[in-house]
Amino acid sequence: MPAPSSPYRWTIRPPCARLGAALAAALPAHGGLIVHLYGELGAGKTTLVRSLLHALGHHGAVRSPTYALVEPYTLARGPAYHFDLYRLADPEELEYIGIRDFLDADALLLIEWPQRGGGFVPAADLVVQLDHAGTQRHATLTAASATGQALLTALELPAAQV
Description:
Helices cover about 20% and strands about 30% of the residues. It has helices at about 15-25, 45-55, 95, 145-155; strands at about 10, 35-40, 70-75, 80-85, 110, 125-135, 135-145. The two termini are about 25 Å apart.
């Protein structure tokens, strides 16, 4: 695996909807991607996922899968799975729900609170860290694979915000 890239840092106004749309536009039409989303409660992780899925063509509700652990979505580009591991009691629960079954070559995996899943969580292609900055958010995006680096290279952000 290549060394992680220099992180992109982006100040987001308003919360994470624009970043989700920008990520959606940068995704290739096919192929899997694993995104780890870090940040405190209320930092905007689910908002980012919601805007990303809507930009990829999902028209229904996007709920935080806090109690279900995972919500599946069918998109034109392939399956997407939104995980929220905040309430995970034991990382082995991921083995019980069959996390390996979600590792389809074309799947988009969006994983909130990946640190709670220990060694059961697949390695990220892209790491997104969201932090509160008053009424704004700061997002730091770091490529953790060649796939993640290609996404960051294709990502078009306003120059004043990178």
